[in-house]
Amino acid sequence: MTATAEDTLRLLIHASTEGALARARSNAINLLRAEPTAAVEIVVNGPAVAAALASPHDTDRLLRLCANTLANNDLEADPELARVKAAVLYIAQRQRDGWSYMRA
Predict the structure, then answer these.
(1) What is the pTM of this model?
(2) Is 99 in a helix, a strand, or coil?
(3) How many CB atoms lie under 10 A from the CB of residue 77?
(4) Where are the alpha helices (DSSP H) in the chain?
(5) SS3 for 101?
(6) How far apart are CA 45 and CA 70, in angstroms?
(7) CA separation (Å) from 82 to 77, 85, 87?
């Protein structure tokens, strides 16, 4: 039996503080180690955005930075880092699309 897109484990991890970002990064690494075919994203808002920009990490490809937080705090991010319009909207959209949600 062949796996389909619906069979893929999809997890959105939400980080809004520096500590939550550290936990989210660790959780993402652990999940991908255990389930390499999983789709994982880390949506980052609030103080976690500045923390993510200050501490590059192997998981940066998984980050989705909140554009509202960037704008409200006059923060500049590497263009390589993915952005979402609003973390709250992105979380709601991913859940609507069947992604599991985890708050770090």
Answers:
(1) 0.92
(2) coil
(3) 16
(4) 18-34, 47-54, 67-72, 87-96
(5) strand
(6) 8
(7) 9, 10, 12
